Structures are given as C-alpha cells and as structure tokens.
C-alpha cells in the first residue's frame, strides 16, 4: 500500500482552469498502459471508472494510478461469467448475462473517455431497466452542442472502444496505436468551461452538503439505537458544521453562483423526505441468476449492481431524464498496480 496525494481525476480537471482534448488523451493513454499491463498479467479489473483513477502526487506531470481492485479477477482461460461492475460503466455482455473477457475493461475506458470530453455519461435514464437496455444496445450519441468542438478522431476512438460486439472492440494494444492517443489528432482547443460545468452537475458534490448529510445520518442512527434499547430519545440537533473552501481566483465567482443555486435546490429537497427515508430501505438492482456460471464462481451469489440516482442532470437530459452514476469508491484500500490483487 502507498499514500497518494494527487487526488481524484475529476478534482484535478476542475482545478486546472484550462483543459483540452490533448489533456484527456494523455490521461487515457496512461490508463490504457496500466490496464494493458494488468491484462498481460492475466488480471481483469472489472470496475474501471473515474473515481478509481487517482494521481500519484500534486505535481503537474504526476502519473496516473488505478485503484480499487475489489472486483478484479485473475483469469486462466480469459472467460468470466459473474455479473459485477458499476452501472453506467459495465459492458453490454455483462448485462446480457453472457460469458465475457478482458474486453469489458476496454468498454469502461471508452465510457470514461466519453465523460472526459463532455462531462456527462453516455448512458442516462430514469429507470434501471431503461438504462441497462440502452447499454445493451450500445445506444449513445454525441450530442450537440457539447460535442461540436470535439474532433472526429476522438469520436472514432470512442466508437471503437464502445463496440457492442466485444470481438470487434479495441484491445488496449490497438487503442494505444490510435492517432488520438498518440497525440497526432487530439485538439488543443480549450473545452474547460463546458466540461467542468457538466462534471459539477453530474458528479461533484459540495463539501458542505456532504458534511450536513453525514450529521443527519449520525443523529438518525442514534435515535434508532435508543429506540431499540427502549429508551426515550432526547431531542438532538444537527451540529453546526462549517466547511470553508478557498477556491482559486479563476473559479471564485463561478463557484459562488453555483453554491447559491445548490443551496436553493437543497432547501426544496429538505421540504419532503426522500424515497429512501420514507421506506427506510435502499433500492438495489440484482440481476437474475446465471445458469451458465462456472463451478468456482457459482459458489457465491453474483454481486448486485448498485445504482445511485443523481439530483443533478445534464443539460441534454433536463426533459424528464435522470443521470445514473456510481457511488464514490471507497479509497481507503486502493492498490498500486504492482501490489497484491484480489483474485
């Protein structure tokens, strides 16, 4: 294990102030090199997503690290069948309950590339069934105006990485030879504003909101514990948590406006309980059982695919659509490529 101080991928992008296709290409190139090394070693990650891409240090030229090997697997014959991964990043063949290979990692890299160039995911729907249906059909678009300034070479790279047929999908070796990856066709035009706005809408959560939600959850658990013990809970109040963030001069005004909008939205949300608070349960989606599981994998239940519904939808999906994305990864146990992998 090692301590990484560079932070997550999205945070680094938001702090840059300037961002282009070339920057995204360099990130994906490093990811491809790392995943290619895994594949050569017989390891499939199976849960690649932006939250699992970290920077080693705060240096401008810091290298990229892949983390969270909780779902990774050592493969002998290259074929797996256990349904696992994160909705939005999982490959069509996994959702179709078919045997799959290391090509699922390349699909996920294609999804990550898509997000890095526009700030929102290629697949978003209001229900899990519709979301998974779109993924299984590989049904996504390069929406205008968000993709108008993105090169055709970048779009071609994504199409090859997100091929529905895994046998036609790029391998890491093929992807590393693509012109967009080797730097010949990636544009230098600044796309920071459009990408950063969408990332903050769809993925970023303000620190003060996270702290508030944590305080509410702690008090709720205390009340449940007292009720279970037969005691009368005493009135409790949410601690006055103050989180101070010092933005860079470039982003100060923009973040102030975004925070005011966020506070207004949160006040509206707090007026009515969420579905999870009303029912007291969380909703998980479990795929059907797999009759074709191998003997070794069928000993334990197939991991469910968990979805988290975002309160921030991308501009293109404001007409009644909801973004689905993964819960933040538990980074307490991230693993360097050279360290022991879970089998």
How is this structure best described in words?
- This protein starts with 8 loop residues before the first helix and ends in an 18-residue tail after the last strand.
- It is globular.
- The chain is 38% helix and 4% strand.
- It has helices at residues 9-16, 21-40, 92-95, 103-118, 128-136, 152-161, 172-176, 192-202, 207-228, 252-270, 275-279, and strands at 43-44, 53-55, 64-66, 73-74, 308-309, 324-325.
- α4 runs antiparallel to α6.
- A two-stranded antiparallel sheet has the order 1-4.
- It is mostly helical and 343 residues long.
- β2 and β3 form a beta hairpin.
- The protein has two domains: 9-203 and 283-333, Transferase(Phosphotransferase) domain 1 (Transferase(Phosphotransferase), domain 1); 207-272, no CATH class.
Summarize the model shown.
With 343 residues, the protein is mainly alpha-helical. Helices cover 38% and strands 4% of the residues.
Shape: globular
Order of helices and strands: HHEEEEHHHHHHHHHEE
Tell me, rounded to a whole number, the average pLDDT. Answer: 74
Rounded to the nearest angstrom, the radius of gyration is 21 Å
Q: With helices defined by DSSP (H or I, 4 residues minimum), what is the helix count?
A: 11
Q: Report the end-to-end length measured between terminal Cα atoms.
A: 17 Å
Strand order of the largest sheet: 1-4
The proportion of residues in beta strands is: under 5%
Number of domains: 2
CATH architecture of the largest domain: Orthogonal Bundle
CATH superfamily of the largest domain: Transferase(Phosphotransferase) domain 1
Here the CATH topology of the largest domain equals Transferase(Phosphotransferase), domain 1
Biased composition (Polar residues): 276-299
Domain Protein kinase: 1-181
Protein name: Protein kinase domain-containing protein
Region (Disordered): 230-310
